[in-house]
């Protein structure tokens, strides 16, 4: 991967845009010069994860704010610009998290995250109450999956009635950061489509579904105002502008869910491309001009944040799984990569079903991880490290196959997220999926997408004609050095191993092989 230094250009006096991505493990910030098409600085700060029995995964919103402040300071120092040159901000956020605020704007409970599986039973009950799978598809255009916001709200109602009674508004993580920046409670269709009370076909809140989730709450006042993804949320509050050293008229774009922003940050805003993220979660998505309704409910018919739709498959165990095994052996990221590379294709028969966090697709919220095929000969650190990377990647192939016709003719996958920084993993993805992969120069594509969206929003506000496509052309560039092509022998071996993976899923979990 090329360093950012090679990308830096002259520092303009204006036309700077800030992209923020509040991911699961960290907040990333980039500063771009949209006129020159250069990335000037980036920063990243980690978050704490609150984990508990039964699949609890939560975060404190204060942690997000602290990470944003720190990452912004680092990016600004690297860019070496005056913060007053920043014209607009775009915020991307991990999808689905429940941020329930009281009337003063304080959380009534910590943010409950997309990867929390504690509410699986509530999700099942909600599906039933909405008329089963078909009822969900008819009303919402997608099937509720454990992890969506709806079951978290229902869970809070059941388990913390006092906190539930104090709810005044229900936001998503990126909405919350926009609220902190502007004081406005606003959302847009991309992120809203992952709540479970949004009609993804009509691109509107589904009040009837919301009443099933939270009968006592009034959707007219609880739910954030919906704006188009090209519209601004507002201007940065004076207090925030002072603290961050920004000028007092900085625009805040609508922002969106991290997958929607990563689609923009990889130029995936027209049919024909596939974006795959190896983040904490694994996601694979393709832009579509019409809604894509999956009768099985595994492909989520999310709206894109550039108009159109972004059908997506999400698995919960990608770098969350590889990090667990890496840390078990006490390896740093570089050593882990070396150990993965040292093991042969197929890890000498060791296979990992990496469901440490339960799983969303296939829908196994209560599953746990398994290491299978271990013998006295193949049980080595190298094989275990490779097997967890391979297992997470089999999940991505499963997801790609679910996308069906949208991905069938794709000649190249744009790979993003932390795991995409690993050359050995990129090759494994190419070999397992049998498709060429390439990374954008900036693998923090969600933060870049948010910055591009901010530039788009700013251009529209100023009456400028610059389209999102033009901005993507200028700011999204691919790193030829990251290109990995399938190797025929390895691909054939992986076809066999993938069949073994599907068989293991069928035997253990009754998932059709
Ligand atoms: N070279 C690498 N090889 C494997 N994993 C990596 C590498 N670089 C970063 N990661 C992992 O990527 C993860 C962070 O990815 P990221 O996309 O930022 O996650 P999120 O957006 O969910 O917070 C971390 O678990 C980190 O260990
Ligand atoms: O739940 C989903 C998508 O439906 C996840 O993709 C989250 O949006 C978290 O993303 P990362 O933190 O892994 O980037």
Automatic annotation (TrEMBL):
The active site is at residue 258. It comes from the Bacteria. Keywords: ATP-binding, Carbohydrate metabolism, Kinase, Nucleotide-binding, Transferase, Xylose metabolism. Residues 16-265 form the Carbohydrate kinase FGGY N-terminal domain. It is an enzyme of class 2 (transferase). Gene3D superfamilies: 3.30.420.40. SUPFAM superfamilies: Actin-like ATPase domain. Residues 275-456 form the Carbohydrate kinase FGGY C-terminal domain. InterPro entries: ATPase_NBD (IPR043129), Carb_kinase_FGGY (IPR000577), Carb_kinase_FGGY_CS (IPR018483), FGGY_C (IPR018485), FGGY_Carb_Kinase (IPR050406), FGGY_N (IPR018484), Xylulokinase (IPR006000). It catalyses: D-xylulose + ATP = D-xylulose 5-phosphate + ADP + H(+). CDD domains: ASKHA_NBD_FGGY_BaXK-like. Substrate binds at residues 95-96. The record marks 21 as: Important for activity. Its EC number is 2.7.1.17. Catalyzes the phosphorylation of D-xylulose to D-xylulose 5-phosphate. Belongs to the FGGY kinase family. NCBIfam families: XylB. This is Xylulose kinase. It comes from Modicisalibacter zincidurans.
